[in-house]
Amino acid sequence: MKSDEGAPAVPAAGLGVVWQAQSASAAAAPAHAPGVPLAELRRGLRRSLIERREALAADVCAVASALVVAALRTHFPQLSGLRVGFCWPMRNEIDLRPLLLDWLRAARPGFQALLPVVVGAAQPLAFRAWIPGGTGAAETPLALDRHGIPYPASGDFVVPEALLVPVNAVDAAGYRLGYGGGYFDRTLAAISPRPLAIGIGFDFSRVATVWPQAHDEPLDALVSDAAVFRFKRHAD
Ligand SMILES: Nc1nc2c(c(=O)[nH]1)N(C=O)[C@@H](CNc1ccc(C(=O)N[C@@H](CCC(=O)O)C(=O)O)cc1)CN2
Ligand SMILES: Nc1ncnc2c1ncn2[C@@H]1O[C@H](COP(=O)(O)OP(=O)(O)OP(=O)(O)O)[C@@H](O)[C@H]1O
């Protein structure tokens, strides 16, 4: 299969799917250190999991990325025909670029790879198409945003149908912690219809609770290097 050339040899269908109920009660914070403000607990959890990931060796990150890519191919094949937002990896995040590049080369009608554009600190993210070199089409010029992350410097804004959302922590109900900017929560709340939201991260990012807040938007699924988790919606 041409599109898999160069990909590390990992089992494509070896990862199981776990269904988890996303109940209203799961959103109620369970017992925690009495007297410690939730914002502080969330900050501490975010910091410790980012530190754990940043301490990983490059080859560990590469293997985890290959496993996540294999699971996305197997369990979410519909993504290859959608407008898919993903993130340029930073600080040892899972690297999805080889997958998006494969899907660009496959050129299924309707597919676009989109990168976020930070428009403003309290704004939802916008998205622009990413076309890397070597696809035959004009390459998208990248610039660095206020956080030092590459983003497409020009092009129309495009509304994503699915978002591959990096997680620093994710809980049993599908709530996540990012970097504390609130960007993805604002983005998921702003786009209608709501895009399919798939969390992407290391399996050690899974925790019992992130003490979700009123503004937190739950994920539909999480793909880690160990399994695929689907968060079932309960009719509220
Ligand atoms: N690779 C990648 N790109 C992404 C995201 C992401 O999670 N991963 N984002 C996902 O939303 C957006 C960027 N969000 C970010 C939010 C905060 C910081 C940041 O550096 N925050 C400071 C602390 C800020 C504060 O003082 O509160 C830090 O972590 O040091 C970086 C990116 C869009 N691009
Ligand atoms: N829909 C929203 N409307 C207004 N403010 C919001 C919204 N969503 C999040 N925020 C604000 O953003 C701030 C950070 O939120 P939170 O700690 O959940 O970020 P995060 O999910 O870790 O960040 P990110 O999505 O950027 O990775 C909070 O102070 C919150 O009030």
UniProtKB/TrEMBL annotation:
The keyword Magnesium applies. One of its GO terms (biological process) is tetrahydrofolate interconversion. GO terms for molecular function: 5-formyltetrahydrofolate cyclo-ligase activity; ATP binding; metal ion binding. Keywords: ATP-binding, Magnesium, Metal-binding, Nucleotide-binding. Pfam families: 5-FTHF_cyc-lig. It catalyses: (6S)-5-formyl-5,6,7,8-tetrahydrofolate + ATP = (6R)-5,10-methenyltetrahydrofolate + ADP + phosphate. It is an enzyme of class 6 (ligase). Its cofactor is Mg(2+). The keyword Signal does not apply. InterPro entries: FTHF_cligase, FTHF_cligase-like_sf, NagB/RpiA_transferase-like. Its EC number is 6.3.3.2. NCBIfam families: MTHFS_bact. Belongs to the 5-formyltetrahydrofolate cyclo-ligase family. PANTHER family: 5-FORMYLTETRAHYDROFOLATE CYCLO-LIGASE, ATPASE INHIBITOR/5-FORMYLTETRAHYDROFOLATE CYCLO-LIGASE. This is 5-formyltetrahydrofolate cyclo-ligase. It comes from Rhodocyclus tenuis.
